[in-house]
Amino acid sequence: MHKQNGFTLIELVIVIVILGILAVTAAPRFLNLQSDARLSALEGMKGAMASASNIVYSKAVIAELETVSAGASISDGINTIAIVHGYPKASPDGIGNAVQGLNDNKEWTIDANDVPISSNPYLRAGKDINAIDAGKCYVQYTQSANNGDEPEITIESSGC
Questions:
Q1: Which DSSP category does 102 fall into?
Q2: What is the biggest distance separating any 2 CA atoms in the chain, rounded to whole angstroms?
Q3: pLDDT at residue 131 greater than cutoff 80
Q4: Sign (positive or negative) of CA dihedral 64, 146, 92, 110
Q5: What is the enclosing helix (H) or strand (E) of 14?
Q6: Taking a C-beta distance cutoff of 8 angstroms, is the pair 144, 138 a contact?
Q7: CA distance between the termini of the chain
Q8: CB 144 within 8 A of CB 84
Q9: Which of 129, 159, 124 is nearest to 141 (CA)?
Q10: The pLDDT of residue 34 is above 70
Q11: What is the 3-state secondary structure (H, E, C) of 135-152?
Q12: Is it the case that residue 3 has pLDDT exceeding 80?
């Protein structure tokens, strides 16, 4: 009798079915990379805003403008940055000018139209204006309300 080396057709079909089941169950975990990338971009923007606001505050202290509550500005050599209590104002001419690339609307979109009428306005930045409008995927910069208070920078990522 002749001995065969190899697999039967039914064995190959079973292996293909098992691989298909594994692919279907594992694929969603690996295909969810877009939301991870969006969240990482928001974290990076939060860090950039925090760094920029601290640098602007340092310049304001040197210029003795850290207690001015309105109408002051600092120049970084390229842009004029509006400040409140020494930190960038929550506006395109404040934190928008302090963070390089935030105001050019190529990478990030600034939503400054929803700034509430109060003593503590905010600015939202995200990759997609629709996600910002839906209130679900953005970084929110809330300017300093009082002397000595740092701005608050939060991430809303439930819609990312």
A1: T
A2: 99
A3: no
A4: positive
A5: helix 9-31
A6: no
A7: 64
A8: yes
A9: 124
A10: yes
A11: CCCEEEEECCCCCCCCCE
A12: no
Confidence of residue 114 (pLDDT cuts 50, 70, 90): low
Predicted local distance difference test score (pLDDT) of residue 117: 47
DSSP the chain: -PPP-S--HHHHHHHHHHHHHHHHHHHHHHHTHHHHHHHHHHHHHHHHHHHHHHHHHHHHHHTT-TT--SSEEEE-SS-EEEEETTEEPSSTTTHHHHSTTTSSSSS-EEE-TT--SSSS-EEEEES-HHHHHTTSSEEEEE---STTPPPEEEEE-TT-
The tokens describing 18, both together, are 């098992």
Q: What is the pLDDT of residues 50-79, one digit of tens each?
A: 999 999 999 999 999 988 888 889 988 888
